[in-house]
Amino acid sequence: MEAAPILQVRDLSVTLDSEAGPVLAVRSVSYSVRPGEVFGIVGESGSGKSVSSLAVMSLLPSHARIRGSVLFRGQELLGQSDRALSRIRGRRIAMVFQDPLSALTPVYSVGDQIAEAILVHESMSREAATERAVELLALVGIPSPRHRATAFPHEFSGGMRQRAMIAMAIANRPDLIIADEPTTALDVTIQAQILQVLRTAQEVTGAAIILITHDMGIIAGMADRVGVMYAGKLVETGSVDDVFYRARMPYTLGLLGSIPRLDRGTHQALTPIEGTPPSLVDLPPGCPFESRCPLRIPSCREVEPPLLEMAASGPGHLAACHRSAEVERRDLKSADVFPAPPPHASDRDGAPRAELDQVLEVQDLVKHFPLVKGAILRRRVGTVHAVDGISFDIRRGETLGLVGESGCGKTTAIMEILNLLAPTSGRIVVFGRDTANITHRERFETRRDLQVVFQDPMASLDPRLPVHDILAEPLEAHGVPAVEHSARVRELLRLVGLEPQHASRYPQALSGGQRQRVGIARALALEPRLLVLDEPVSSLDVSIRAGVINLLEQLKKELGLSYLFVAHDLSVVRHIADRVAVMYLGRFVEIGAVDDVFDRPAHPYTQALLSAIPLPDPVKERTRTRIVLEGDLPDPSDPPTGCRFRTRCQKFSGELADAARRRCIEEQPALAARTGGPDHLDACHYAVTASVL
Amino acid sequence: MISFLLRRLAYLALLVLVATSAAYFLAATQLNPRSRYEGRNPPPPAAVVDAALDALNLNDRTPVLERFARWSTGVFHGDLGRTVDNTSVNEEIDRRMWVSLRLMLLGAILGSALGVAGGAYAAVKQYQKFDHVLTVFSFVILSIPTVVLAVLYKNAGIGLNNLLGFTGETKLLYTTGEMTPGLDPWTGAGIMDRMAHLILPTLVLASISIAFYGRYQRNAMLDILGSDFLRTAQAKGLPRSRALIRHGLRTALIPMVTFFAYQFALLFVGATFTEKIFGWHGMGEYFVNSVTGQDVNSVAGVTLFVAILVLIAGFLADVAYAALDPRVRV
Ligand code: SF4
Ligand code: SF4
């Protein structure tokens, strides 16, 4: 006999006002959460996943119209007075928001804010509440909690703030915690820490958790049951195993197939979902996924499919699709439903690497920034060692992935390269030309061959220009005759999978994925040989992302391009790169062929990084052993002596004897081949390869 | 933090020096105290005029640098020089600054308190009745020049007096001066009389402050209303009103402290038009009179006084900002 659900959401609908008209943000969503379980809600931006959970807490802006019913332990929450709700909020149901600095009030200390959460619900002295706040901070793993309780939010790192949020959420031992994208703004090793804290929090309080995220990997590792949202509707729900292994709604299948898998690499075919989600302002009748669904039939346009039980799977597996019975019968997988380009096997034409031309060579690149303080009277207080001696090269037709967490120096490194100027120290050689001694003219010519695509397509495209002018701009700058512009623009649009009529549109009229395609087209306008891609897909939703990744792969093959691909998402890098370099605090810790580095990582940091990435595979995710790094990135203006990673190194703290540690503290490990192939280098004195996927 | 404030103070002091010197040179070269003697009948002999001007350090035949040297030496000894009427600038300022303060204090307090409260409430009730009323009020008040506004209020006051039959010596609302001459200010009647004099100018000043602060506070509060931390405060169980005051208003007040600091430091400087229209002999009136009266030393003295107050205000703003916002503390 199952326990009675603590939360029952029935036919919840939310309409929000917008300039374009009323937005049907959530439409008739029903789900229930049982005591102590983790219910995941997954969906892309605009799917209504956050709005629906804020509606549960009645925390939406006043113009939101909420209908339906939310029963918490049998008590109706919708329509309650603010007073009545405030007795439940924070005490019975708590929330953890997405991290940004903004979720904590900037003017009160962290300890005070936690104490306040206790004091609104319990009568006790301020001192006792503060004492309790310190205990909670210790519980969520904040070092020297008594001292840190007096600090202000801006003095906390992102990970620490999220720990403090969790401490606040569990302060009153709630029955239900709603965590809304709790790790989205965080780096992956910090994300692993926070998920761990969330698990601890759940053990301590026994609370049920509603976990809202866009990351299927997090769901796979954390949730018991999951609901998939699309265009304001719950389109599939069931146990994680049912949804991940027996998905019956085409959108879920597409979503699962569009995620690059860390454990599959270049051999995986990514299934992009064409098109974009419908506008929620005036939604056409019928299935909201109709315009993007390869399985659509005429009736999909007219009748919106209800959520129906899937006969063959376990109870509680529901899917909203007219053809789900058929999908179930034929047990269709992502690749059966969505056309995917064949996976690209390594397409190097057989020649050994050393014989190919070098397009970029970087030797001992160093970039230091002065650290200044004060707004009006600036003074130098130190030096940030942003990039501290990195070396690599890229050969013709090759993709090097440069990965690392924020603050590791990867962006600084590519900015130095793109400058085409002599670096502070070290050498940059682009297409055989050393940037230290090239003329103005040569630099201008080199720019033709070296182009860049930025992360945020909206910020890098001039909003006042139509797409045609954006693409013609580089042509004009490099003296391509005006009569040839139109033909070239059409050609470029075709190349990146856009239609000729897109030329007259403005960037704001395009979707995120289309904008990024324009960004890529602009970079290709002058037929470059090397593209620097700075987080080109990280601002895109998963289903859109796959299309852009496939495009980049296809372009590389068609045009014989080389890529320097900078990303924090290792799964994407594994999918697209030939070689990968892992950066930590301004230095490379490991570099080598993707399969070597991902399957046999040698450096403890690489191992931890890979182990921190959640795999969208529930069974694997549940059985993996996880390396969770301690602490935060050290201050880059004062890096540790010896090995820069030693303050967080799991090997240093867990395996090495004191005598061995001495070497880590005193001697900076050089990048060298220690574990096998001559092309697989690492920077750890005690490197041993291990498999962590 | 202390060293930051000290450096800031030194920087502001330098500004005072520059501003005051510039004002002296401007006044000394552009104003012409000699003209005061020229219209007389019979014209006084040139030697007498020169002697009189020399005594006041106002003679345009003395090189301006020499006059500046004499003036600034005096300033360093705490003496701002003599007015054209041979009275002490120090005494003039010392008397008038308190007049200005008495005129403005009540209006400033009322105006900023009501402005902040009104602005914050309007933000919470965005696009509702109160918000519309405040918006219209602010736009109307801020678009009317102060002189016109003061005259309007004055006429309204006179109209009200007549309507209620206060046509004799005793009025409900007085429209000129600080108090009725001859009354003992510390008796009950004296205080009532002062109040009756104060009401109209206070209303003028308060209206302007309410309009100004109301606008700013509304915008500051609107920024905060959409913020995540306000939602966090409610999510942890604070009722909306308490979350709004403790987390919302508290944070939205930070950008306002600069305005407060300046307004309160500049209370002594006076309100030129309001003083003129309602016949209060404060600093604002003094400054206008000294310019029209070719009174070089008074102009320079008032400028120095204002500059020092601006310095204090700037410093107060920095201190208050740091006290209210932990993010700027270093
Ligand atoms: S109902 Fe039709 S359009 Fe919608 S997902 Fe199913 S097959 Fe596709
Ligand atoms: S050198 Fe030492 S501290 Fe650095 S990664 Fe290797 S074991 Fe860890």
Task: Give a verbal description of the structure.
The complex is a heterodimer of chains A (693) and B (330). Chain A is of the alpha/beta class. Chain A folds into 4 domains: 7-223, Rossmann fold, CATH 3.40.50.300; 233-337, no CATH class; 353-529, 3-Layer(aba) Sandwich (Rossmann fold), CATH 3.40.50.300; 587-682, no CATH class. In chain A, 32% of the residues lie in helices and 21% in strands. Chain A contains 25 helices and 23 strands. In chain A, the strands form 4 sheets. An 8-stranded mixed β-sheet of chain A has the order 6-7-8-3-9-10-12-11, sandwiched between helices. Chain A has a 7-stranded mixed β-sheet with strand order 18-19-20-15-21-22-23, sandwiched between helices. In chain A, strand 9 (225-230) and strand 10 (233-239) form a beta hairpin. Chain B is mostly helical and 330 residues long. Chain B has one domain (92-329): MetI-like fold (Orthogonal Bundle). Chain B contains 14 helices and no strands. In chain B, helix 5 crosses helix 8. Chain B is globular and about 85 Å long. The termini of chain B are close together. The relative contact order of chain B is 0.15. The model of chain B has no long low-confidence stretch (mean pLDDT 87). The interface between A and B is medium-sized, with 40 and 29 residues. The complex binds iron/sulfur cluster (2 copies). Residues 604, 643, 645-646, 649, 651-652, 664, 669, 684-686 of chain A line the site of one iron/sulfur cluster. One iron/sulfur cluster (SF4) binds at residues 249-250, 287, 289-290, 293, 295-296, 300, 305, 321-323 of chain A.
